[in-house]
Structure formats: structure tokens, C-alpha cells
Design goal:
- There is one protein chain.
- By secondary structure, the chain is of the alpha/beta class.
- The chain has three domains: 34 residues; 202 residues, P-loop containing nucleotide triphosphate hydrolases (Rossmann fold), CATH 3.40.50.300; 162 residues, Ribosomal Protein S5, domain 2, CATH 3.30.230.
- The protein has nine helices and 21 strands.
- Strands 6-5-7-8-4-9-10-11-12 form a nine-stranded mixed beta sheet, sandwiched between helices. Strands 15-16-14-13-17-20-21 form a seven-stranded mixed beta sheet. It has a three-stranded antiparallel beta sheet with strand order 2-1-3.
- Strand 11 and strand 12 form a beta hairpin.
- Helix 4 runs parallel beside helix 5.
- The chain binds thymidine-5'-diphosphate (TYD) and magnesium ion (MG).
Amino acid sequence: MKRKTAYVCSECGASALQWFGACPSCGAAGTLSETVTERGSSASKGKIPTVALAELQPRELERIPSGMAELDRALGGGLVPGQVALLGGDPGIGKSTLLLQALSSISRAGLYVTGEESAEQVAMRARRLALDPGGMRLLAETQLERVLGALEGARPGVAVIDSIQTLWSEALQSAPGSVAQVRECAAQLTRHAKRAGTALLLIGHVTKEGAIAGPRVLEHIVDTVLYFEGDPHSSFRLVRAVKNRFGAVNELGVFAMTESGLKGVSNPSRLFLSSHEKPVPGSCVLATLEGTRPLLVEIQALVDAAHSPNPRRLSVGLEQNRLAMLLAVLHRHAGIATWEQDVFVNAVGGVRIAEPAADLAVCLAVVSSFSDKPISPRVAVFGEIGLAGEVRPAQRGQDRLREIAKLGFEKVVIPKSNLPKGKIVGLEIVAVERIDRAVQLLRDL
Ligand code: TYD
Ligand code: MG
């Protein structure tokens, strides 16, 4: 049966029978996209029963471990039957490699649907990675209805779709990769996953162009959204959960890309600390939190005389606006004037840090570079800085302190409110209330 489609405006919701460059109803340009309109009769007849919340007995979720501890960590303990997870990331970052490895280590029957590479190419990669094929099956197909047929036939416990942008449904005229196709294919696959109890992993490329639909348009359809990120010039890769109906978000899995595929890194703190032979100015170790996991990251700053009337403020892996704010606080409350200086800051190892608890490390790295005074590499810090110059507490200070102590640091500078009740063996704890005090301390660090 051929289903009817219409072109719906994403601004005003009006629908048209053909495509227009501008919506005939509201006049917005480029907002019409194709959508399937008819899906049988869904009008409800008669009375529909509802359930009392108090009578429902929630069951423990059955988890399917992926066999890769770091991926399981990001997923919140493994996949759940019927779960649909999206793995987004730049082309070439290692999405196919990761999920092929995961599928081969899952104990349940797996199906790998490849629309990007031929079955031979996938088999070659599996051989090169020395994966155990077990009961894994392959399908090289891009047509959605045929993929659904194969899923129905094989009934795998877990299936990988590589990638959602290559699939197309015969119900729509738009090209594969268009918003309409990507959305329709994901919706149909999700319906199948829920019905059959198959856990689905969808691969989606993140694209800068709006023309090809990126994973963003799928985020509300799927249960879990994972992003695979990392600096293409380093071998470290991070899997981050940004949405998860079956677990906590912002959990992080850390991998290293090696000759023989992706290897989990169970002690990632070492990755984000660079090793200097001698202490260098402009470097400060931050104890940050990624999800529930404490992580030590080196923050670097370079403060240099500006050669233009507009000094530059640039940050890599940290928020740019926050840097401007911190420089203002440093001037106003600690007397460090950088308006004739270019200021660059960088989080080592390609990690991205969004939490305000990085403030103190950024400020100390900036002051260290500005005054050419190195901070000992055995010192770690954390703490948020307010506009009034106060050092504010960070979440889960105890966890951060434990990680710092575990890695053999000797001294920490932390917000006063994060001061632990007991002593920590081998760790000297300096608590500060204001940024000027922290800057003064720099002389003895
Ligand atoms: P791939 O999984 O194909 O990326 P994606 O599916 O996200 O586009 O991986 C691409 C890169 O990974 C490729 O440039 C080569 C590198 N790689 C390794 O370094 N080691 C390996 O064992 C494999 C399989 C790939
Ligand atoms: Mg790929």
C-alpha cells in the first residue's frame, strides 16, 4: 500500500500537497518537509481503560552488557531489550568500529545492517580486529522495508544500523539522509524495536550542513543519545550519554583508538595530564566531574602581549564567555589586568568541560602564565568563581578529593565549603574563600 505524504511547515504546522520553497501559509522560507500523513485509522472507539500509578509494580530492568565496560558505563550498565540508542559523531571518529566490536562481544545474537560499506568490507574489518564472529549476522541493505523484514526474520537480540542516514523508505520521495527520511526510518525502526524487544543501536553522522539531517532531529524519538567525540589528532575517544531514559546522563566512557580497534581506558585521568619535565608556567590541574566520574584534566593558559587593539580571548574545550567573565573577575577582585594581553586557554587531551567548577583552575593557569610563575604539578584545584570574587563550592567535592589523592597529588586548593570533615592521608588541603586569596597562594604553590 502506498502511503500518502504531505509537506508540513515546521514553523506554523500548515500542510501542503506539494513542496514550496516558502510556506504558502506563513511565508517562512525552507521550512516545508515531507511527512507521512496516513497510517490507518487511529481514531479511538469506546472507552479506553487507564491504570492507577500506585498499582504498578516496577520491575528491575534487564540489562544486556555490551561486553565493553566503557560503553556500558556510558549506557548506564548495558542495553535494555527494546531500547533504541543513537550513536552520533563526526565521520571517521570510529563509530562503525566501536559498534562492530560491541556487537561481537555481546552474548546475544546480533545483526549488523550496513548501508555504508559492503558486507565484505565489514567482514574484512572484523577479521583485522580479530573479532569473534560468534552468531553475528550481516545485512548490506539501505531500503527500510527490507531492513524491517530482516529484523522480523532474524529476531536478533541486538541490532546495529550503520547508518540511519543511508536508509530510505519507499513511502517517501525525498532523498536518503533528508530530514523526512531519517525521521520516518527511525520512527519505524523504533516501533519494531519496542514490539520485538530488540535493542537497536543507530549510527548517525553529525554534519555541519543542515541539508543532511543530523542526529539532532532524532533525539526526541530514541531512548538514548550517545555522542562519540574526541580530537581527531589524538587517539582518545569519549562516548558521552546526553539523553538516557534507562540511566544517568553525562556518563562518560573513555577509549583509545589503537591498531587493533578501540580499547577501553579504565583510568582516564592519566590521559588528560601532560607530562612536563619541569613545572611550566600556565598549567594547572583541575579535578572535574564527568557524569559521576572524577577526572583530572590539565588546564593550560597562555597570556601574551596583544599586538592589536582587540586582544584575543580564545578557549579550546572550555566556554569562551566564561573566560571573558573570569578575566573581568580577576581584574576587579584580584588586581590582575589582562586588557592588553591575548589570553588562550586549553583543556588538554581534547576533553570538553562545561562545569563552572573549572573556574579556579582557569584563573590560576591564567595568573601563572601572566606572572610567569609555574604551579607545581603535584597541585590540583577545583571551585567555581562568582562575580563578586567569591570561591563557590563544587558538587561532590569528596569524590574529587579521593581521585586527587589516588593519583598521588600532594596539595589541593579548594573552596572552603568543600573542606572535608576528616583528614586525607598524604594530601595537604588549602581552603580559600576568595579569588584574591587563591592568587596570593600561587606564590607558594
Ligand atoms: P570508523 O569506525 O570507520 O569511523 P566512522 O564509522 O565513525 O566513520 O573508523 C575510522 C577510523 O578509525 C579510520 O580512520 C581508521 C581508524 N581505525 C584505527 O585506527 N584502528 C582500527 O583498528 C580501525 C578499525 C580503525
Ligand atoms: Mg562508519
